[in-house]
């Protein structure tokens, strides 16, 4: 072993010559320490290893910091895109609803015109039947008068042959009366024929207009089909993410909708089901059922929106300089060093960083709360409660109604705290749950 070290010293002697460190004490005694080439090589190697380790650790920390910033920027862009998409879907939904209502109004107007035309056609048919009956009666009367005229002429011939002037005079008077009657009957017959032709022309025009209205009705039905298809697809696209979000948060959507529906005072006029009268000759149309189904689905989406506003799905801090420092679950207590349950999530950042309400609710506590320090507690619907602890400043009062995004305080280090941070909890029925469950469930929705 000694020979091997000597050989190494001999090899390294050319690069690292032996050095001596002289040490002089207060008693004028001088001592020295020999630094052989092997010792110098070990010291240099250890220094280089420490330097490399320091560079690697620094690069790792910088890479993680850059990666976390990029992830927040990506999440912010995705959130902005989803919000823009939801706004576009809402505008498309409103436009489609307006088009459906306008189409339904045009459909009702067309049905009214068709009913009026049918009534006019029935009246024309009845009038024509009455005129035909009157014409037949006039024809019979004319034939009777013509027969009387022939009989009068025959009698006139008899009178002329017998030379009875008195009977001739009476016969001429009757002939004149008969001629007047015939003139009146012929005039009435001509007027009746003209009225019959006019009624027939009106009936033909009515039939053409009915054909035109039937074509318009088919076009309206085709357009309604396209509108209903787009509406049904938009409703499905809007509803599925909301249902998935509530189920991911452990909240049954059916129960939430029942609670929201029972708490509402009235229904929006735009989402009231359509009711179309089907009295008379018009049969019920399936468009009414489809329209009511779409409106019911939109009402359900509106109920989801109200439930989401009352549920703490948002982040309590949105500043770029904030980072998560502790999660939910068992952890090592920074003060005692013991393992204990951590009932929330901690975010660290600059003092005074805005703390925002994560959902609509009522402030039930705003003040000092033991180890939590300055604390705000908000009671939401569905038995959900959120807690914001260690605040530097409180901006709300007990009993105040807040909405999602309202500023309720600033980040601080009051109470049992080792640094400036926010301690955030969500409790359901008094039992703490992991807040990240709600935050992650709404990442692709809000």
Helix content class: 55-70%
The counted number of beta strands is: 15
Let me know the average pLDDT: 79
Classify the fold: give the CATH topology of the largest domain.
Helix Hairpins
Radius of gyration: 50 Å
Note the run of SSEs as H and E: HEEHHHHEEEEEEEEEEEEEH
CATH class (first level) name of the largest domain: Mainly Alpha
Please state the second-level CATH architecture of the largest domain: Orthogonal Bundle
Rough outline: rod-shaped
What structural class do helix, strand and pairing data support?
A: alpha+beta
Whole-Å distance between the termini?
71 Å
* Portion in beta strands: 15-25%
Short recap of the structure:
It contains six helices and 15 strands. It is an alpha+beta fold.
Detailed description of the structure:
There is one protein chain. The chain has 446 residues and is an alpha+beta fold. The chain has 2 domains: 208 residues, Helix Hairpins (Orthogonal Bundle), CATH 1.10.287; 106 residues, Glucose Permease (Domain IIA) (Distorted Sandwich). It has 6 helices and 15 strands. The strands form 4 sheets. Strands 3, 6, 8, 9, 10, 12, 14 and 15 form an 8-stranded antiparallel β-sheet that branches. The protein has a 3-stranded antiparallel β-sheet with strand order 7-13-11, with no helix packed on it. Helix 2 packs antiparallel against helix 3, helix 3 runs parallel beside helix 5 and helix 4 crosses helix 5. The protein is rod-shaped and about 200 Å long. The two termini are 71 Å apart.
